[in-house]
Every structure is written in C-alpha cells, then in structure tokens.
Amino acid sequence: MATKDQNPSAFSLSVALLVLAVGWRQCASSAASVLPMAVFQAAGPATTDTLLEYRSTLSELYAATFCFRFRIRQSRSLNTIVSYALSDEGDEINLSVNYIDRSFVFLCCQDWVELELKLSVGLREWMSFCFAVELKERRWTLVKNGETWTGRIRGEAADAQPIRAGGNLVIGQDQDSLGAGFNEFESLSGWLVDLAIYDQVLTAAQMVDFTTCKEITPSVAPVVDFSNIKRDFEVRNVDLDSIGKYKTCESDRNFNLIFPELRVFEDGRLLCHIVGGRLSVPRSAEENVELFNKSLPIQEYCGDGYAETLWLGVTGDVPQQEWHHYATRDPLKYSKFGPDSDFGMPIVRPDTCVAFRGSNDTAEEDFGVWVPSDCDLEMCPVCHFDQVGLIRMRGLCKESEFDRDYFLTHDQGSLSFTGVLYSEIVKNPPSPEKSSSDFGFWTLTRFDKPQVTAVLHMTSPTHYPLGLNTWHVDNDVCGKSTVQLMMTSCKDGQFSCRDGTCIVIQQRCDLEADCPDGTDEVDCDFHSMPKDYDSHSPPSRPDRTQPIQVKLFITILSMRGVDLSNFGFTCEIEVRLQWTDDRLRFHHLNFAETLNILDGNSMPWVPKLEFLGDGDTTSTVVERRRAVRVRRFSKKPLPDNDEYMFEGERSGSENPLVLVRKLTVTTSCQFDLEAFPFDTQTCGLGVLLSGITKEYVIIVPDGKGVNFVGQRKLLEYFLSSEKMVQRDEGNYSGQAVEIKLRNMATFYITSTYVPTFIIVIIATLSSSSLSELQREGHGGLDGAAGGGDVLLAGERLHSAHGLPQAG
C-alpha cells in the first residue's frame, strides 16, 4: 500500500475569513426569519406521549385555512399534523400526510368531508403546505411548495356542517376520542415549523406565497400559530428549537455523508455507488467550508495522522491537463488546490486522485485544501446524494415484522440505516476482549418490539450490511433463524449484484461479467415454477370455452432433394412454436430472445409434434438443434415482490415461451406424373400436435405461418410457392405446409432428350455407313456395328433411370 507524504503549505487564504463571510451572509439573509420549531420523536420508537395540546379552543368555523412546514424524520402509517376532537367526534378535524400511499388526508365535520389527495411526499426534506376549505361553498384548495390543487366537496350546500367549537386541538397525535385514543402509528416523527390556522380562506396567491417562502400579502392574523409555543401549548415530550426560514425553503435536497473507514479511492467510489450516491465534489467555496466542518468530528478515524482525510470525486486528465468529475467527466468549475501542490498542476500520472484536507491539525490556511494523491492511498469516502434515497431489503417473508425500505442517517453521531416506519440497523463495536476476527456486528431491531432482532457479524472493519449477507434472526415470524438478505439501492430496470452494485438489467446473463464480483452471470435460471407445477400438462385455459393457442411458424431453409423414384423429398426446416404459460414467473429477461434460454432439469411444458407426409405417412425427422427461450413482451415487470432476492420478475402470461427446433425431414409426396416432364406437383408436410386434443390446445399459424429462404431453383424442379393450411387429424389439431414444385422441362430436354436424340442420330448414321461398307465386302466391321448398338442401349438405360416409367 502506498504511503502519504506530508507537504508543508503556504496557502495564504484564510478559511476562517471564508467561514465568517459565509456565516454573515446567511445571518444577514435570515436574521428576521428565525422560526420556532417543534421536534417530535427525534429518536427511538413511535410513541403516544409526544404532542402539543392547545391551551384554548376553536370557534365555530365554516371556513378555515391550515398552513405549515414540516420534515419527516421517520414515517408512521399516518403522519398526523392536526387533530381536533369533540366529546362525540374524534375526527372533527384530522389533517395528515401519508408517506406510504403518497397522499394528503383531511377529515372534517362529522365525516361530512373526507378527502385523500394523491401527491409526492418525501423523507427528510422540507415541505410547505396550505389547505383551505369553504364548507358552505363546498370548495377546497391545496397548495404544496407552490403547486395548487382545487376541488369540490360532495353533497349539497344545505348539508354543510361547520367545524364545531369547544373541542380539543392536538398537534402531532391523532385523537380517536376527546384528548385520548392515541395510536403511536398515527403520530408525527419529524420537524414542524410555521404552523398557522386561519378562520378564513386565504387566496390562492397568498397560499402560494406561504408555500414558496414569501411573505403573505396582505398579511392575515391566524387564530392559532407557533409564535409562542410554550405560552399557547402544553408541551409533552416535544423538543423546542429554532431554525432559519431559509433552511426550510431550500429547494436543494442534496447532502453529504462521510463513511468513517479508510479505503482506497476505487473502493470508496464503489461504496458510494452501492448506497445510491457518488463521491462528493464541492461546487463552491461555501460547499467546501461545509464539507470541512462536517469532516472535523471524524478526522481521528480518517486522517491516519495526516491532514488529508477524505476522497473527493475528482480525477486528472493527463493529455488535457485538467481536473474533472470522475463520473461525468466534466471539467471542474471550482477547485481549491494549494500552492504546495502547484495548484494541482501539472498532472503527471493518469492514476492521480484528489484528497481533501479535513483536519484542523494543520495550518489554518490549509483547511479544506485539495491535494493530488495516489489513488492507492487509504482515506474516508464522502458520498453525495441528490436526495434521500431508499435502500431496499429483499428476502424477508411476507409476514416479517421488519421494514423493507431504509435510508442512511447520521442522527446519533454515527452512520445507521433507518427504516421508513419502525426499524433501524445500527453498528455495534467489537467486544473489549475481541479476537483478531471480531470486527463488531450490525443489529436490525424493531423499535416497538425490541425482542424482534437480526444480527450480521462483520467480516472486516469496512463491512456494511449492503448487498447479500447472512443474518441471524430472533423472534421474527418467518420461522427461520438464519436468512440471506439483500440490501440494494437499485432502481427499476437495474439488477443488484451480490455486493450491492447496480447494473442495467439487460446486462444480466448476457454472457459478459459486468458486476465487479461477476455475479450477474451466476444463477442464470430465467424461470421459476410453483412446487405443484406439472411439466406434462399444458397451462389451464383462461376461458374454458376456448383452447390454448400455440403459434407455429416454419422456416424452410433448403430443399435437399426431390426423389421421384421413391415419391418423397428431403428438406431442412426451422420450427418455431410460441405460447404462454401463466403458471411461470421469469426473472431478469433480456430484450434479446437468444439470451433468454431455459435449460436445466426443471423445464416447463412443451408441445409435442408429429410430422406427417401425404396420406398421413410418418416422416423421418433428425433434430439438429433445440432451444426453449423466453420472448420479453411486457414493458414493465410485475409489482416488486421483495420476498424474492432479485427484482424484475415478469409474468408468464405476458412473456411467451418459444421452442425453436432445427430439423432435417424426409417425407413422402404423392407425385402425379401424367404430364411429366411438364408437370407441377403439390406436396405437403403436416405438423400434428400429439398427446392432447384440440379441445384444450390448438396450433395456429403465426402470421402467414411459413417462409422459404433457400434456393428455389432446384435441379429438376422450381419451388414456386408455399403456404400453410389447417390440417387436423381427428381430435388433434394440426397444420400443413403446402409447397408447389414446377417441373423445369428444359432440364430433361437438355440433359436427357437432346443427348439421346443426338445419340440415336449418330447410331443411325453409323448403322447406315456400316451397311454400305458391308455391301462393298467389308464384313469385318460387324463387331464395330454391334458396339454402336450396345452404346445406344446403354445410354438409353442410363437416361431412363430417373424418369417416370410408362405403364
């Protein structure tokens, strides 16, 4: 492993001044915009004892507007913002956001108003809402981050019910009865600011102003707000804080996370990819300072005694002599190389990466400086995320009590994986008496059921619960003590390698290793069958009155020969059958059908064929090649089933099986030779489905059903046309290929009749000459004449061998 070299720095720019400048700018822009903030359930399990209870009550309202900004820390089944109850009605007002269903929920007025509006809801991102309702006019308006929805309330104006006075107003819990009936899974875990309830309907423009962080004009006084939370609310287990308004209004949802373990550059790059991010590259002096501040708490783990602590996503281009982003290859618009490295120039080696000085154990002017470094050095990777991304856990049974989706957090001072609803994965250090093989372990727990746990023992200091790992489970309902689980950030259209890397699904089982660990070419079984699958029986008919259709297409590759004497012909054909089997499920199908080949012992049902000649005579068939493939038709996979280890499952009802057979077939043909050699013959090759009657399965042509791609001009005949026709036999379905053969009479004229005619003439002339000689007394030539007769007879016999015999 390469070692680091310390370089003394003389860089004069003071980071302290930059920090001061950045801080001044933020304070100047937000001095008058610091908002009181309520923090609900900042850590730990969902509970029913975290709430704000309003010390007063509401008056009767026929119109109201509710505005607030909030950020979900960990979702509940229902994230309740406002709950207002009376003695006879628990949901006089219920205003909630549902992350799971991605919806905004408003219930009101003795069940007269029940709205559930679909919209995008994010985790760990600030969202601003305003909701206005006019009960007499039966109208409502919702605005989220400047986007507006409007609608009408069902019913008649005469049926309008008001929001009644005298109830109990609670923030952060859902009341099922007056001041009680709380459910921890309908509570709020997150940050809430700028809550305001108005006794009138704000205009759409005012609500847009609020949700885009502008001042509402003209200003309107709310009846309930967060201006003085302690005075107006009874605070129960809620942390009170403050936040700059600009922080709640930032449109950027990106953030950085530092992994506090030493890795070479390539391993750091791969880790960021696996968790759904990429190595960070500061784009401005402000971002550089923020990264420096973030790096200070972990410098003891990353510096290894040196000032360079972090890997940045920057690599050098030697020919162009410029630094660029390692992933996009774009030249940098901002950098902070110091004079001790000649400001990053020249770039000498192509394997030069960039380290970040994230330690304060150096000169102040070196804070946050970038240093060209050997890519084989070990530092901590800092990963950049455009937004909170989910990491899915695959392999749990359907009834498992653990979360399926997690996101990376740094809530407790160390990296952990927080479940969307109620689980968490945290890292535990090795025991004090650790052995050389004890690197600690990861624990998966459910907050509200601490007895339900799973443990993953680390195999190295850098082992994260990403990719495929073996977990030891206690008290989950799946019934297994050891289970393999896959944690992956891969999206639709991607395949999860066993190490957690994502590749495009088309690269799965394409005969080339694309995963770093090569696992995209392992376990390439494209199909799965239920345990009770019977490969001897066809799929069930969806409609009992209609048989299953098997599409048939025959490609005639060549006609090997026409044998008139034996009344038959031989051809090379490719038979293609296509059908669907809804009992099957397919995995990681490629668009290239030839890559989706099924093999192995567990093969699905395949139609059996019998090939017949004219008169239903049996044909001789020699199989040269055979393959069962899957043809990908469906644009989208089935809804993701995280019980399966890998994603991208597709239905057998939408993606047909294809049987391809290359055959040499010798079959009979009832030649009609009366007009020979000026004849035209029609021969048929029958294909019969055997073993099952046409009540259940039939063969139908795929398109025109047949195509000829060989040489049509044969030695004696010309193949003029081919077509497919239905030819059933009793209760069995079948098709037949009919081919027309037109005799090329010129062949016989030029190859048989003309030579024979010439020989006859020669023989006749020879005979005449011999007779003349004999009359002149040359009797010794009789042997020669006899030889001419034998030659003629032999030629006639030879010429007649391939010809039809006269009756």
UniProtKB/TrEMBL annotation:
Gene Ontology MF terms in the entry: extracellular ligand-gated monoatomic ion channel activity; transmembrane signaling receptor activity
Disulfide bond positions: C490-C502, C497-C515, C509-C524
Chief place where the protein resides: membrane
Pfam families: Ldl_recept_a, Neur_chan_LBD, Pentaxin
CDD domains reported in the protein's UniProt record: LDLa (cd00112)
Domain (Pentraxin (PTX)): residue spans on this chain: 34-249
Protein name in UniProt: Putative neuronal pentraxin-2
